[in-house]
Amino acid sequence: MIVALSGIYPEGTYEKFRELLPEDVELLKIDTPEKYQALDRADVVILRIFRAEKEDILRIKGLRMISRWGVGYDSVDVETASARGILVTNTPGSNAYAVAEHTVMLMLALCHHLTEHNRYAQRGEWSNKTFMETTRTLNDAVVGLIGGGNVGRQVARRVRAFGAKVVYYDPFRLSGELEREFAMKYVSMDELLRTADFVSIHAPLTEENRHMLGEAAIARMKPGAYIINTARSGLIDEAALVKAVDEGRITGAGIDCPENAPIRRDDPLLGRDTILVTPHVAGTANDIASATIPMLADTIMELYSGDPVRFAVNADKLGSAGS
Protein backbone atom coordinates (compact mmCIF):
# COMPACT_ATOMS: atom_id res chain seq x y z
CA MET A 1 0.00 0.00 0.00
CA ILE A 2 1.25 3.51 -0.89
CA VAL A 3 0.16 6.39 1.38
CA ALA A 4 0.91 9.94 0.21
CA LEU A 5 1.13 12.48 3.04
CA SER A 6 0.19 15.50 0.92
CA GLY A 7 0.39 19.06 2.20
CA ILE A 8 2.12 21.00 4.96
CA TYR A 9 2.06 19.33 8.38
CA PRO A 10 3.36 19.95 11.90
CA GLU A 11 6.90 18.83 12.59
CA GLY A 12 7.13 15.14 13.38
CA THR A 13 3.95 14.16 11.51
CA TYR A 14 5.74 11.92 9.00
CA GLU A 15 7.66 10.16 11.78
CA LYS A 16 4.49 9.56 13.81
CA PHE A 17 2.71 8.03 10.82
CA ARG A 18 5.76 5.87 10.17
CA GLU A 19 5.50 4.53 13.74
CA LEU A 20 1.79 3.74 13.43
CA LEU A 21 1.70 2.15 9.97
CA PRO A 22 3.08 -1.29 9.03
CA GLU A 23 6.55 -1.49 7.50
CA ASP A 24 5.18 -2.66 4.16
CA VAL A 25 3.16 0.56 3.80
CA GLU A 26 5.19 2.96 1.67
CA LEU A 27 4.79 6.48 3.07
CA LEU A 28 5.52 9.35 0.70
CA LYS A 29 6.17 12.91 1.84
CA ILE A 30 4.45 15.17 -0.69
CA ASP A 31 5.17 18.60 0.81
CA THR A 32 5.27 20.92 -2.21
CA PRO A 33 2.73 21.70 -4.96
CA GLU A 34 5.26 20.45 -7.51
CA LYS A 35 5.55 17.06 -5.81
CA TYR A 36 1.77 16.86 -5.54
CA GLN A 37 1.29 17.58 -9.23
CA ALA A 38 3.85 14.88 -10.03
CA LEU A 39 2.14 12.28 -7.80
CA ASP A 40 0.72 9.67 -10.16
CA ARG A 41 0.19 6.60 -7.96
CA ALA A 42 -1.07 6.06 -4.42
CA ASP A 43 -3.65 3.96 -2.60
CA VAL A 44 -4.32 6.67 -0.01
CA VAL A 45 -3.84 10.43 -0.16
CA ILE A 46 -3.84 12.25 3.18
CA LEU A 47 -4.76 15.83 2.38
CA ARG A 48 -4.08 19.10 4.17
CA ILE A 49 -3.99 22.55 2.51
CA PHE A 50 -3.75 20.94 -0.95
CA ARG A 51 -6.95 20.16 -2.86
CA ALA A 52 -8.17 17.01 -4.61
CA GLU A 53 -9.74 18.39 -7.76
CA LYS A 54 -11.12 16.20 -10.55
CA GLU A 55 -7.84 16.29 -12.46
CA ASP A 56 -5.90 15.20 -9.38
CA ILE A 57 -8.23 12.28 -8.72
CA LEU A 58 -8.01 11.18 -12.35
CA ARG A 59 -4.21 11.54 -12.40
CA ILE A 60 -3.43 9.44 -9.32
CA LYS A 61 -3.67 5.77 -10.34
CA GLY A 62 -4.77 3.12 -7.86
CA LEU A 63 -6.41 5.66 -5.55
CA ARG A 64 -8.75 4.02 -3.06
CA MET A 65 -9.16 6.66 -0.35
CA ILE A 66 -8.71 10.40 0.19
CA SER A 67 -8.37 11.23 3.90
CA ARG A 68 -8.82 14.84 4.96
CA TRP A 69 -6.79 16.17 7.89
CA GLY A 70 -9.67 17.97 9.60
CA VAL A 71 -13.42 18.06 9.37
CA GLY A 72 -14.18 19.98 6.19
CA TYR A 73 -13.90 18.18 2.86
CA ASP A 74 -15.00 20.85 0.39
CA SER A 75 -11.40 20.78 -0.92
CA VAL A 76 -12.20 17.34 -2.38
CA ASP A 77 -14.24 16.70 -5.52
CA VAL A 78 -16.44 14.16 -3.74
CA GLU A 79 -18.60 13.58 -6.82
CA THR A 80 -15.65 12.47 -8.93
CA ALA A 81 -14.21 10.39 -6.09
CA SER A 82 -17.55 8.65 -5.53
CA ALA A 83 -18.00 7.94 -9.24
CA ARG A 84 -14.62 6.18 -9.23
CA GLY A 85 -15.33 4.19 -6.06
CA ILE A 86 -12.89 6.20 -3.96
CA LEU A 87 -13.66 6.72 -0.28
CA VAL A 88 -13.45 10.24 1.15
CA THR A 89 -12.89 10.41 4.91
CA ASN A 90 -12.34 13.14 7.48
CA THR A 91 -11.37 13.38 11.15
CA PRO A 92 -14.46 14.68 12.95
CA GLY A 93 -13.78 16.32 16.28
CA SER A 94 -9.99 16.18 16.03
CA ASN A 95 -9.60 19.96 15.87
CA ALA A 96 -12.82 20.92 17.67
CA TYR A 97 -11.00 22.32 20.70
CA ALA A 98 -8.77 24.53 18.57
CA VAL A 99 -11.66 25.90 16.49
CA ALA A 100 -13.75 26.50 19.61
CA GLU A 101 -10.93 28.45 21.27
CA HIS A 102 -10.45 30.57 18.13
CA THR A 103 -14.19 31.24 18.00
CA VAL A 104 -14.29 32.48 21.59
CA MET A 105 -11.10 34.48 21.03
CA LEU A 106 -12.79 36.36 18.18
CA MET A 107 -15.84 37.04 20.34
CA LEU A 108 -13.73 38.43 23.19
CA ALA A 109 -11.44 40.44 20.90
CA LEU A 110 -14.46 42.09 19.29
CA CYS A 111 -16.46 42.93 22.38
CA HIS A 112 -13.38 44.14 24.31
CA HIS A 113 -11.93 46.14 21.36
CA LEU A 114 -8.64 44.25 21.65
CA THR A 115 -7.15 45.25 18.30
CA GLU A 116 -8.08 48.91 18.74
CA HIS A 117 -6.58 49.10 22.23
CA ASN A 118 -3.39 47.47 20.98
CA ARG A 119 -3.16 49.83 18.00
CA TYR A 120 -3.59 52.88 20.25
CA ALA A 121 -1.01 51.56 22.71
CA GLN A 122 1.49 50.86 19.92
CA ARG A 123 1.18 54.54 18.98
CA GLY A 124 1.78 55.57 22.59
CA GLU A 125 -1.83 56.65 23.11
CA TRP A 126 -3.71 55.77 26.32
CA SER A 127 -7.21 54.60 25.34
CA ASN A 128 -8.70 53.48 28.64
CA LYS A 129 -11.83 55.63 28.15
CA THR A 130 -12.14 55.56 24.35
CA PHE A 131 -14.27 52.42 24.11
CA MET A 132 -15.87 52.44 27.54
CA GLU A 133 -19.42 52.79 26.21
CA THR A 134 -19.13 50.05 23.58
CA THR A 135 -17.23 47.38 25.51
CA ARG A 136 -19.28 44.45 26.71
CA THR A 137 -18.74 41.02 28.24
CA LEU A 138 -19.99 37.53 27.50
CA ASN A 139 -21.67 37.38 30.88
CA ASP A 140 -25.44 37.00 30.37
CA ALA A 141 -24.97 37.25 26.60
CA VAL A 142 -26.96 34.88 24.38
CA VAL A 143 -24.65 32.93 22.10
CA GLY A 144 -26.50 31.39 19.15
CA LEU A 145 -24.80 28.45 17.51
CA ILE A 146 -25.77 27.46 13.99
CA GLY A 147 -24.70 23.83 14.16
CA GLY A 148 -24.60 21.56 17.18
CA GLY A 149 -21.73 19.30 16.15
CA ASN A 150 -18.37 18.75 17.81
CA VAL A 151 -17.17 22.34 17.43
CA GLY A 152 -20.49 23.91 18.39
CA ARG A 153 -20.64 21.86 21.58
CA GLN A 154 -17.10 22.84 22.55
CA VAL A 155 -17.92 26.51 21.94
CA ALA A 156 -20.98 26.09 24.17
CA ARG A 157 -18.87 24.63 26.96
CA ARG A 158 -16.39 27.51 26.80
CA VAL A 159 -18.79 30.45 26.58
CA ARG A 160 -20.80 29.04 29.48
CA ALA A 161 -17.64 29.45 31.59
CA PHE A 162 -17.94 33.18 30.85
CA GLY A 163 -21.56 33.22 31.99
CA ALA A 164 -23.20 33.16 28.57
CA LYS A 165 -26.46 31.40 27.72
CA VAL A 166 -26.41 29.11 24.69
CA VAL A 167 -29.10 28.46 22.10
CA TYR A 168 -28.56 26.47 18.93
CA TYR A 169 -30.19 25.46 15.69
CA ASP A 170 -29.29 22.38 13.66
CA PRO A 171 -31.37 20.50 11.07
CA PHE A 172 -30.54 17.41 13.13
CA ARG A 173 -31.43 18.13 16.73
CA LEU A 174 -29.14 16.74 19.43
CA SER A 175 -30.31 14.15 21.91
CA GLY A 176 -31.76 15.41 25.16
CA GLU A 177 -28.74 13.96 26.93
CA LEU A 178 -26.30 16.06 24.89
CA GLU A 179 -28.46 19.17 25.21
CA ARG A 180 -28.36 18.80 28.99
CA GLU A 181 -24.65 17.98 29.10
CA PHE A 182 -23.69 21.11 27.15
CA ALA A 183 -26.59 23.30 28.38
CA MET A 184 -27.69 24.06 24.84
CA LYS A 185 -31.30 25.11 24.21
CA TYR A 186 -32.75 24.12 20.85
CA VAL A 187 -34.56 26.94 19.02
CA SER A 188 -35.70 27.70 15.51
CA MET A 189 -33.37 29.53 13.18
CA ASP A 190 -35.64 32.56 13.31
CA GLU A 191 -35.60 32.69 17.11
CA LEU A 192 -31.83 32.29 17.16
CA LEU A 193 -31.36 35.24 14.83
CA ARG A 194 -33.83 37.40 16.78
CA THR A 195 -32.38 36.72 20.23
CA ALA A 196 -28.65 35.98 19.95
CA ASP A 197 -26.03 38.60 20.84
CA PHE A 198 -23.45 36.45 19.05
CA VAL A 199 -24.34 34.30 16.04
CA SER A 200 -21.60 31.73 15.48
CA ILE A 201 -21.65 29.38 12.48
CA HIS A 202 -20.46 25.78 12.81
CA ALA A 203 -21.89 24.09 9.73
CA PRO A 204 -20.47 22.43 6.61
CA LEU A 205 -20.81 24.24 3.29
CA THR A 206 -23.37 22.75 0.91
CA GLU A 207 -25.17 24.13 -2.08
CA GLU A 208 -28.31 24.27 0.07
CA ASN A 209 -26.83 26.47 2.79
CA ARG A 210 -24.54 28.71 0.74
CA HIS A 211 -25.04 32.30 1.99
CA MET A 212 -27.25 31.03 4.81
CA LEU A 213 -26.57 34.38 6.43
CA GLY A 214 -27.62 36.57 3.56
CA GLU A 215 -29.27 39.99 3.52
CA ALA A 216 -32.66 38.70 4.69
CA ALA A 217 -31.25 36.60 7.53
CA ILE A 218 -28.95 39.38 8.73
CA ALA A 219 -31.88 41.81 8.70
CA ARG A 220 -33.69 39.50 11.16
CA MET A 221 -30.78 39.52 13.61
CA LYS A 222 -30.89 41.28 16.94
CA PRO A 223 -29.67 44.88 16.49
CA GLY A 224 -26.08 45.25 17.63
CA ALA A 225 -25.26 41.54 17.45
CA TYR A 226 -21.97 40.02 16.29
CA ILE A 227 -21.38 37.34 13.64
CA ILE A 228 -18.59 34.75 13.89
CA ASN A 229 -17.65 32.30 11.15
CA THR A 230 -14.91 29.76 11.83
CA ALA A 231 -16.54 27.06 9.71
CA ARG A 232 -16.38 27.48 5.94
CA SER A 233 -16.28 30.31 3.43
CA GLY A 234 -19.47 30.82 1.46
CA LEU A 235 -21.80 30.52 4.44
CA ILE A 236 -22.11 34.30 4.73
CA ASP A 237 -23.01 36.82 2.04
CA GLU A 238 -20.07 39.09 2.84
CA ALA A 239 -21.43 42.03 0.86
CA ALA A 240 -24.57 41.94 3.01
CA LEU A 241 -22.45 41.57 6.14
CA VAL A 242 -20.25 44.57 5.34
CA LYS A 243 -23.32 46.67 4.55
CA ALA A 244 -24.95 45.74 7.87
CA VAL A 245 -21.78 46.57 9.81
CA ASP A 246 -21.30 49.88 8.03
CA GLU A 247 -24.93 50.82 8.72
CA GLY A 248 -24.53 49.90 12.40
CA ARG A 249 -27.15 47.15 12.38
CA ILE A 250 -24.45 44.60 13.23
CA THR A 251 -21.75 45.64 15.70
CA GLY A 252 -18.99 43.48 14.28
CA ALA A 253 -17.84 40.19 12.85
CA GLY A 254 -15.02 37.69 13.20
CA ILE A 255 -14.28 35.83 9.98
CA ASP A 256 -11.71 33.03 9.83
CA CYS A 257 -12.65 31.85 6.34
CA PRO A 258 -13.31 34.75 3.95
CA GLU A 259 -14.88 33.92 0.61
CA ASN A 260 -12.02 35.36 -1.39
CA ALA A 261 -8.93 33.51 -0.22
CA PRO A 262 -6.10 34.31 -0.22
CA ILE A 263 -7.51 37.67 0.74
CA ARG A 264 -6.46 40.82 -1.17
CA ARG A 265 -5.72 44.20 0.37
CA ASP A 266 -8.79 45.69 -1.36
CA ASP A 267 -11.22 43.06 -0.04
CA PRO A 268 -14.35 44.77 1.38
CA LEU A 269 -13.94 42.88 4.66
CA LEU A 270 -10.73 44.75 5.43
CA GLY A 271 -10.12 48.23 6.74
CA ARG A 272 -12.58 48.07 9.64
CA ASP A 273 -11.80 47.60 13.33
CA THR A 274 -15.25 46.03 13.68
CA ILE A 275 -14.45 43.13 11.33
CA LEU A 276 -11.62 40.83 12.36
CA VAL A 277 -10.23 38.53 9.68
CA THR A 278 -7.92 35.56 10.18
CA PRO A 279 -6.58 33.33 7.34
CA HIS A 280 -8.49 30.09 8.05
CA VAL A 281 -6.25 29.13 10.96
CA ALA A 282 -8.83 28.26 13.61
CA GLY A 283 -8.18 24.55 13.31
CA THR A 284 -4.44 24.58 12.70
CA ALA A 285 -2.99 24.48 16.21
CA ASN A 286 0.16 22.38 16.30
CA ASP A 287 -0.98 20.20 19.18
CA ILE A 288 -4.10 18.84 17.43
CA ALA A 289 -1.79 16.42 15.62
CA SER A 290 -1.87 14.18 18.68
CA ALA A 291 -5.58 13.54 18.03
CA THR A 292 -5.63 13.73 14.22
CA ILE A 293 -2.75 11.39 13.34
CA PRO A 294 -4.08 8.34 15.23
CA MET A 295 -7.54 8.82 13.69
CA LEU A 296 -6.06 8.92 10.20
CA ALA A 297 -3.78 5.97 10.88
CA ASP A 298 -6.73 3.91 12.18
CA THR A 299 -8.72 4.72 9.04
CA ILE A 300 -5.81 3.65 6.84
CA MET A 301 -5.46 0.40 8.81
CA GLU A 302 -9.15 -0.32 8.34
CA LEU A 303 -8.70 -0.02 4.58
CA TYR A 304 -5.46 -2.02 4.77
CA SER A 305 -7.18 -4.85 6.68
CA GLY A 306 -10.36 -4.84 4.60
CA ASP A 307 -12.51 -3.71 7.52
CA PRO A 308 -15.36 -1.19 7.23
CA VAL A 309 -13.85 2.30 7.09
CA ARG A 310 -15.11 4.75 9.67
CA PHE A 311 -15.55 8.46 9.02
CA ALA A 312 -16.29 7.95 5.31
CA VAL A 313 -18.38 10.91 4.17
CA ASN A 314 -19.42 9.31 0.88
CA ALA A 315 -19.97 5.66 1.91
CA ASP A 316 -23.66 5.93 1.02
CA LYS A 317 -22.69 6.78 -2.56
CA LEU A 318 -20.37 3.79 -2.90
CA GLY A 319 -22.56 0.93 -1.74
CA SER A 320 -20.20 -1.81 -0.63
CA ALA A 321 -17.07 0.09 -1.65
CA GLY A 322 -16.58 1.32 1.90
CA SER A 323 -16.13 -2.19 3.27
Name a few traits of the molecule:
323 residues; alpha/beta; Rossmann fold; 2 domains; 7-stranded parallel β-sheet; 5-stranded parallel β-sheet; 13 helices; globular
Class from secondary-structure proportions = alpha/beta
Q: What is the straight-line distance between the termini?
A: 17 Å
Strand order of the largest sheet: 8-7-6-9-10-11-12
> SSE order in H/E notation?
EHEHEHEHEHHEHEHEHEHEHEEHH
What does this structure look like?
The mean pLDDT is 95. This protein is α/β, with parallel strands linked by helices and 323 residues long. 35% of the residues lie in helices and 17% in strands. A 7-stranded parallel beta sheet has the order 8-7-6-9-10-11-12, with helices on both faces. It folds into 2 domains: 130 residues, 3-Layer(aba) Sandwich (Rossmann fold); 182 residues, Rossmann fold (3-Layer(aba) Sandwich), CATH 3.40.50.
Question: In a nutshell, what does this entry contain?
Answer:
The chain is 35% helix and 17% strand. It has helices at residues 13-20, 33-38, 54-59, 78-83, 96-111, 114-122, 150-161, 176-182, 189-195, 215-219, 238-246, 289-305, 315-318; strands at 2-7, 26-30, 44-48, 65-68, 87-89, 142-146, 165-169, 184-186, 198-201, 225-229, 250-255, 275-277.
